[in-house]
Amino acid sequence: MKSYRKELWFETKTRRAFINITPQVEAALRESGIKEGLLLCNAMHITASVFINDDESGLHHDFETWLEKLAPEKPYEQYRHNGFEDNADAHLKRTIMGREVVVAVTNGQLDLGPWEQIFYGEFDGKRRKRVLIKIIGE
Amino acid sequence: MKSYRKELWFETKTRRAFINITPQVEAALRESGIKEGLLLCNAMHITASVFINDDESGLHHDFETWLEKLAPEKPYEQYRHNGFEDNADAHLKRTIMGREVVVAVTNGQLDLGPWEQIFYGEFDGKRRKRVLIKIIGE
Amino acid sequence: MKSYRKELWFETKTRRAFINITPQVEAALRESGIKEGLLLCNAMHITASVFINDDESGLHHDFETWLEKLAPEKPYEQYRHNGFEDNADAHLKRTIMGREVVVAVTNGQLDLGPWEQIFYGEFDGKRRKRVLIKIIGE
What we know:
The structure is a homotrimer.
Chain A: E1 2-10, E2 17-20, H1 22-32, E3 37-43, E4 48-53, H2 57-70, H3 88-97, E5 100-106, E6 109-110, E7 117-122, E8 129-137
Antiparallel strand pairs in A: 1-8, 2-7, 3-5, 3-8, 4-7, 5-6
Organism (chains A, B, C): Carboxydocella sporoproducens DSM 16521
Protein name (chains A, B, C): Secondary thiamine-phosphate synthase enzyme
Pfam family, one (chains A, B, C): YjbQ
């Protein structure tokens, strides 16, 4: 069994952002040399997400509006977590979007459906944060 | 290390549906011959879901009502994604229900709790769509 | 390839509770002797959750309030699942929080970010329920 580990680092200019990281995940898989196995990709921070969906800007706008409706950023005082911090909404938004994805590796490729793309979802940005890629297989 | 891959295909007659796929996943596991490992089961489409919950029709009705409240299908114009498409709500509903499950394989069986059943959740049906099963182990 | 399996048992005194299980998961990993691989930790019950977030009591209070807003426990009659049962809300709350986490194992450690902690989320407690840990690797 082979295993491979890589971190991706991000620092977004806005509080919230969606970044398509499929090319970086594919590059990590090539570097690993693993042909058959499972790939885990997870946010290492609890106010960020890794998820799979469509790379379509209208949809990303809909996600932003929808998450603000389900877990609004303001007023900050509505959340007990917000004393020294102001990011309680980011913990909730990331919960909706998910921490991680597990993707099959087949013939050395990410075994994704036709429109599946892997995204980093940032909900409390403007600082350096990490994503972990771990691959096991042969 | 062994690995095994299978696709399941679906074409639901309704826009939304929940289908218990536990028997097909068990059949795939038997066919793989894998006794100890991890099984990934994921929707390959971004308007569908694979999730684990109870096979109880009242609960499925509750899921439908609840998802329509959290991410209503109509009016279509409320979503920017809906230009040529009308399925933005399906992307959001699938986000709530999740893309994938990872299930332990122990002694050649799906290592599920007493009421755990695996479902395909369709949110934009009436066309052919796929689920991926990938198993690694020994 | 090595594999390892362990169950953790819980019986909470309240209907809902969040329990930090990171120490038990770390102990299981040490016992397994696995140095590189993937660890699955999932609720075996469909009204409970395993998730990763911050060990901060204000945030846990926010989760409780937020989940009650998204999927209220009462009135029980609002859910069709609630005939002999009264736990439909617990099925919905667990859907938001997630069934499982997959964590990378690196150098014999849980490969977690600085604030990542693993929680058992109970939404229909006061009875014995289980979490499964399955680890594969080398």
